[in-house]
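Below is how a single chain appears once it has passed through the pipeline. First comes the sequence as given, then the structure the pipeline wrote out for it. We keep one example in the README because the format questions we get most often are answered faster by looking than by reading.
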Amino acid sequence: MAKIKHIAIVTMDPPKLAEFYRDVFDMKILHSSNNGATYLTDGYINLALLPNKAEGKPNGLNHFGFEIDDQAEIAAKMEGARPAPAQPALCRDSRLRSGGQQFRPVCAWLPAGRVRRRSRKGRRRRA
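Resulting structure:
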């Protein structure tokens, strides 16, 4: 079963918003990056607070990611649900997160034309 494991929010002040989530909801701050992003967790879902660097770009939800059991099965379902005209898949890369864990995002266009990420189950979660 697919589970939402990652939510990203764009904000003007990631550290200040991270303090809010830490103080109000007892979330744990995992990491603050050199680019200004701050990452938190509640133990189940990771929250990325990304700096808003584009003038006129609204703050708010940027993207979310699912953890899935079978990438081939989900890819086939997504292909069958692909809107016309077909949009190319994006983000087929492999990244290394802090702590050396491998993360492999694969993005796809949703029927509304938005991109969402999914990753394979079994990746080590930061606690």
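Residues 3-120 form a domain with the 2,3-Dihydroxybiphenyl 1,2-Dioxygenase; domain 1 fold (CATH 3.10.180.10).

See the next section for the split statistics.
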